[in-house]
Every structure is written in C-alpha cells, then in structure tokens.
Amino acid sequence: xxRTVVVTGATSGIGRAAAREFAGRGDRLVLAAxxxxxxxxxxxxxxxxxxxxxxxxxxxxxxxxxxxxxxxxEAEFGAVDAWVHTAAVMAYGRFDETPAxxxxxxxxxxxxxxxxxxxxxxxxxxxxxxxxxxxxxxxLGHITAPYMSGYVAAKWGLQGLARTxxxxxxxxxxxxxxxxxxxxxxxxxxxxxxNYLGRIGRPxxxxxxxxxxxxxxxxxxxxxxxxxxxxxxxxxxRFGFTLLPGVYDVLVGxxxxxxxxxxxxxxxxxGIVFAPNPAGEAVRGGWLPDVSRMVRSVAGATTAVxxxxx
Length: 310
Description:
Elements: E1 4-8, H1 13-24, E2 28-33, H2 36-48, E3 53-57, H3 65-77, E4 82-85, E5 91-92, H4 100-128, E6 131-136, H5 149-169, E7 175-182, H6 189-192, E8 194-195, E9 199-201, H7 210-222, E10 227-230, H8 234-243, H9 245-259, E11 261-265, H10 291-308
Parallel strand pairs: 1-2, 1-4, 2-3, 4-6, 5-8, 6-7, 7-10
Antiparallel strand pairs: 9-11
Helix pairs in contact: 1-2, 1-7, 4-5, 8-9
C-alpha cells in the first residue's frame, strides 16, 4: 500500500535517512526543511528511488508554516497517512553562559514546533479517519547531561507531550502517536550545533547510524508502537540515572567532557539555531565508517579487476 508521508527536517541526518527509506518503499513524500537547494537534492534522491516527492521549503517555527505545509501536502497527494517529525537544533554551553535567545530558540524548535506539528497532524488525521504521527525524541528525554540544557529540557518536554497525546489518541480510532528515542547517532547535528563551550561536540559512543533510526521510524508507521529506543546503552543509562542518581551525577560530567566533546577548539557561535547551513547538511556526520559505501566501493573495484583479467 502506497502512503503519503510528510517528513519535517528532511535535509539532514535522521530525517534525510527516513526520506530515503520511505522512498525505497515507493511511498509518496512531502519533504520540508529550511534549505531550498538541499531540499531539492533530497527530493531528487527520492524520485530517483522511484517515489513521488514534493519539496516544501519552510521553517517549522514560522507562524502558520506547519499549516501551510499540511495544505500543500493535501493539495498534491490528498490525505496524509503519516507525519514524521525530525527537525531539531542543539546548543552546547553551560546554562548560565548560553545566550537566553539561543536557549529559547532551541526549545522553540525542538519542543514547541513539534507540538505545532502534532496539533496540525492530529487535526488532519481525525478528519481523514486515521494516520500515524512519529515524533523523534532522544534518550536525553529520559536522562540528563551537562552543557546541553536547552536540548535536554525540550526532549523531556517532548516525552511528556508524546505520552499525553498517546493517551488522548486512545479516544480516536485509527490515529497513532509514536516516539522514537535514539541515543548517539552519526549525524551532522553535533558540528552544526551552537557552541559556547570552546570545544566542538560529538556523539559519545556507542554510535548508531541514522539509517538504523530511519528503519525504526518506518517500522513505527508500519506497526505503530508507543515508544521505540534505538541505542545499545540507552537502557543502561536510564537505569543508572533512575536507580543510582548520586553515582550518575558524579560520573556524567567527566564522561561528557571525555566522550561528548572533541579537542577541536571553536569560537562561540549560533550554529544553525536561527538559520540553516546547507554546506553542513548530510545524512551522516562522519563519526562512523559508512560500511555500505565501503562495500559498494570494494565490489566496484573487484568487478573492475575481474574485467581486466584475461
């Protein structure tokens, strides 16, 4: 069955990987993000995979932007069957040293925009008689880490919002709300983040590929579930945070400085919190080897060698 799927945050990381995954299944796609040129690239990738795709440049924090996106999706393909929301920004810095406007924009993007997406999607789903909303949370919606206060606050809020929406959705047959919570993922968000620490951030190991998270998202649309955790240590971290809070608090700061930050210096900057950086948009952030690309390269080289053999 071919579905119409809206993906917000489609130009980079998990959103772009999810768009590719849906395209490979032949679903119709409505792709939204802030960078028009990169969005056109993603649209072309999806079309090359055989999917129908519409690109709608927009900022999820803009007044009326989410409603206009929903209108465009329905005008192009009819009722929306699923909405996947992955748009997010991040800022590193001690809370008292992070500019208030940066903190507030992180929360606005990662929580309030997600709420607006949910509001619009659920309204449309009720009219259409069903639909699936997939929100992208984080393991940091269950635990905390220093130097990421805006992101953590937003993801904790998103966790509570998702649970509330799931409870209310029980009264609406055919409507499902899913929350996918990844741990560390190999995306560009860490390099693209605002930074007031003086050191570029990185995903602490173990690191998951964005393609794995994308498969979990698609699986939620196929078989809706309340919450899916993607990451080998997510359960361990939640256990320590909940049952051993004193030990957790002693260890989390040093571990964050050791594993969650690089040694590369950086001047204070706003990153992509207020405006996109198309040059930094990609599926992966370069923190993991791209095994599939390596396999393709080896296979291509092997084929070339065989052709040259007598």
